[in-house]
Amino acid sequence: MKRSISRLLIGVAPLAAILMIPSAAHAALDSCGSVFLSASATCQFHQSQDCVDTCKVVSVEESCAAELYTKCEAGCTATASTTCTDTCSPVCVSQCSADAGSMTSDQICRNDCMNDCNTKCADAQNPDCCSKACPYTCDKQCEGSCHDDDQNTDCTPKCATACAGNCTSTANTSCQVDCQTTQWESCKTTTREQCTTSCMTNGGAIVCDGEFLNASNLQECASQLSDELSISLDVSVTAHAAAHVTTTAGNTVKGLNCSFAPAAPDKSTLWIAAAVAGAALLRRRAR
Q: DSSP state, 281?
């Protein structure tokens, strides 16, 4: 009699951990491939079992915007023009006063810069590239020029800061979009390859809002997500055994494949593995 057990999977934790926490916080995550995320992001950890398929369909635009921004930064160094800041400030102060000054200079800067992006990207040569490159430039420039804790500051000095950041941002967005467009398609291809490599070498990959995070160390990336944005993500990798057992009349067992991802198993994992191994041995003896 011939019996076949085609596949045995041992898992002591879910394949993906997901957490979404609404917040206004933003951060540029150096340990996660320098992507810029908000704390409202939905993040998933895909283990190697389903990670390769994820890499085939995942959007990689955010990862490319982060990578190409750094590459193009040296050539995009425009500063805020006096005309821009002079035009911006009175409008900002008026809006700030009507809003009772509740917004921070960082929020004002981003909102104004995003309005400019919407106009620029409507007629862009590559709308997909522009829709990622332009907002990312706003995020980086506003983060470097403004504050996220000055909501109680008077509108006039707060708007001076916000307008300086916004005018610098809008002065550089066209340059960034043009520069990134020339490298956009090749970056997406390379990033998908990096995603697959991460799956195979790290035991999985982190994806936030559909964007692969090009993290060389998954634990460091998860720690920064937690520290900067209060997004908790379990990137521990479970042990999986794939067994192909064929019993013939001579009680011959053929084929045993076990693969363990990088994370060290805890005691419960070891006990489960031992129990399964023992059961397999008893089954052999019974036959």
A: H
Rg (CA), the chain: 25
- CB under 8 Å to 39, separation ≥6 — which residues? 21, 22, 23, 24, 25, 26, 229, 230, 231
Q: List, for residues 238-254, the tens digit of each pLDDT value.
A: 544 333 334 344 444 43
> Among residues 140, 134, 207, which one has the least CA distance to residue 177?
134
The mean pLDDT value for 102-126 works out to 94
The full DSSP string for 54-79 is HHHH-B-HHHHHHHHHHHHHTT----
| Other CB atoms within 10 A of residue 200 CB | 12
Q: Which of 31, 12, 58, 63 is nearest to 261 (CA)?
A: 12
Question: Which string of b and e fits 52-86 if b means at least 16 CB within 10 Å?
Answer: eebbeebbbbbbbbbbbbeebeeebeeebeeebbe
Q: What does the alpha-carbon distance between residue 41 and residue 55 come to, in Å, rounded to a whole number?
A: 19
Q: What three-state secondary structure class fits 247?
A: strand
Q: How far apart are CA 269 and CA 71, in angstroms?
A: 44
Residue 33 tokens, joined: 């491939």
What pTM was estimated for this model as a whole? 0.69
The DSSP element (H or E) to which 43 belongs, if any, is strand 43-47
- pLDDT tens for 7-25 read 322 333 333 333 333 334 5
